[in-house]
Amino acid sequence: MKYVDEFRDPQLITRAAEEIKRLADPNKHYRLMEVCGGHTHAIYRFGLKDVLPPNIELIHGPGCPVCVLPMGRIDDALSIAADSDVIFAAFGDMMRVPGTNGSPLEHKARGMDVRIVYSPSDAIKLAKMNPQKHVLFFAIGFETTAPSTALTLLRAKSEGLHNFSVFCNHVTIIPAIRAILDSPDMRLDGFIGPGHVSTVIGCRPYEWIAKNERKPIVVCGFEPVDLLQSIVMLLTQLQKGEAKVENQYKRVVPWEGNRAALRAMAETFQLRPYFEWRGLGFISQSALRIRDEYCEWDSEQRFHIPGIRVTDPKAAQCGEVLKGVLKPAQCKLFARECTPENPVGALMVSSEGSCAAYYNYEHRKAALVTSIGSAA
Amino acid sequence: MSSGAKLGVAAPKIRFREPQIEMAHGAGGKASRRLVEGLFTPFFFGASTDPLGDAAHLSINGAQLAVTTDSFVVKPLVFPGGSIGELAVNGTMNDLSVSGARPEAIVVGLILEAGLRTDVLQAEIQTIANAAQKAGVRIAGGDTKVVEHGKADGMYISTTGLGTLLPGVEVNPQSVRPGDKIVLSGPIGDHGITILLARGELEMEGDLRSDTRSVFPLVEALVKAAGPGVRWMRDPTRGGAATSLNELARDCGLGIVLFEDTVPVHDAVRGACELLGLDPLHIANEGQFLAVVASEFAEAALKALQTTAGGEEARMIGEIREQPAGSVLVMTLYGGSRIVDMLVGDPLPRIC
Amino acid sequence: MSADNGIGYTPGGCHMCLAIPGKIIEIASDNPNSALVDVVGMRRKVDLGLLQDDMPVSGDWVLIHVGFAMSKISEVDAMDQMRTLEMLGECEAAVQEVRGYGLEDLEDKQAS
Predict the structure, then answer these.
(1) Same domain, yes or no: C66 and C100
(2) Residues of chain C contacting residue A341, judged by C-beta atoms under 8 Å apart
(3) Quick one: which of A185, B233, C83, C106 has the most CB atoms within 10 Å?
């Protein structure tokens, strides 16, 4: 696979890993945060922790949009979809996210019309194919996904589609990073910067991290070689006492971002004054709502929303794990009451959430007594 | 699942606590296992601790028989590479084959939806007859029921297969030892992805066909070359290779290590999995099987498969180790590793 | 028939960050915003609406996310990155080699 296999080349991975070992000062302990859930997932999927020296610690950040979605928002959307004339459409990741009375998939088993879509365009197609019903598209994601929703809203308006609306849960990444840096318990040396969000917002929005917080940040791709190269770049900066924004993912990320995408977003969205993030609390100017000019396609304007707020069980330590203060295995509920099959907290619900990723790919490795050795 | 054990006398202890059946219970992964072990086993197999295999080997008045049953719910009924009829015959034969038996006869139960077109039904009946004849297997009988329109997705097929035991081989997860090698008969993921694409819900197409076939000729070749060394076999259908191997790891209490670069996957399957965020190890197959073979027989086993028609892409993909006990670990060429669990949930409902 | 496709939990299946490179095979004749993209033999319909300012053509590679092309992939930058990666460790090796020569040989090296 082009643009994929080259970046999974075992020789290049080994070479990058050796460079990391060479650069890492054995007397230092490095704490690097990867913000994006996709990076968390890639780290586990490719077993990259096995090739890093023990004094480099990767802390998982809050960039998992499903993880930070408050349960009440699912309840709100499902309450609209309880009407038999409504079709609930969402990405696959949303299907097993539990609401107070069950996940969308469980609601489907009880008779709700729930459909999986792979693109917001599919949701529009559904609306056209089912003129007697209303399609509610549950939109979620950071700035990577928001432009696609934006274009879809523009299309819905230009085509005069009346049986379609978007329940918008898009959030923005910078306030999440700010929340991490504002957290008193957090000590970080640098950031592995979001890759796909940056194709939209570009690299400039991260400059304050380098200038004001004096932390290096490297915008990073998703293949193993990308992650390791970014760590090389971070260590090189740290060695030189530098703190700047670098773009490792140049082949895809333009420094200025994607203007057309940003325009579409500006046309259809505006910032909410505040929004609740599961595990992090209320953050101002951190989420998008649909503009009034598009209110006809805004589920929150078309329908009555109960505005349900659900608090997480106290025992679930999602907030601390989300901020990187605790490791997944350190939460009292991890692998006991809280598993991917029966998620209690937000981070176990999405496969990108640090608890789920750790559970699926890692935690039984900790039980290994002897070292595994390399492939035959 | 089948077991040759006798019924226990104690009142059955039900461990299945869920209030209703969900799609996940039929997916072949963790939920399925909970249902079978928690609700069926206590009633059917009593206190037996025999692991459940693909077919049961019964001794009845001195006659040694293998018996299995399987059901086929597929949507769409016809897809590139095959149809529900073919899955039914091949799937049943494969369950018998990997238990170490020669398929001899099947009986076919049909549940038909009112409104099903006769020409569609006829095509499947023809397919079943052809597949059975090709495999030298008798169709010994059947049953038919019709249900209301809206149930049965057109048709459901249930089969029971009978076979005779192959001499020189006895599969049992308890006989697996550290150092044993794992052999896979060919590329994984073709069937599940073909079905997914055939549904037409994705804006995606590819040149993929279901791999449905009888694996008996390959099993026979394997047993001939390595019979005394064959410890365990399974055909990884729902839940994929990862689920079958996790079940083995649990049943034998040992660890399984797979080498990622050796697992054969067709490019198109890889592309689809990357696009959809799926792991080929979790995707259903209908024409492949896994075997655990003692290391001294492993080369001969692999050679036997590779020189038999249809087995050219067979590979040795891993080995049994003490650790990680009860789990499956996938290793990369550069020393990275990840645990691969049994399937959770149902990524692709109604695929086989 | 209901469009039932209960994709449940798949370790590895999160669409939020999932983006994959694909090659544009064909732009739809009736819709310049729609293209057919190839990912190792899988062909997928992709929306080009976000690349309006610099529309890709047949043969270009793009990054696909939830059915939309997010960015063109720069072959030049990819190759540049490959070169950097291949040289990792070589710079250090070269430096060590030079140190090993000592100052007396520096003139020789400058001459070559």
Answers:
(1) no
(2) 9
(3) B233
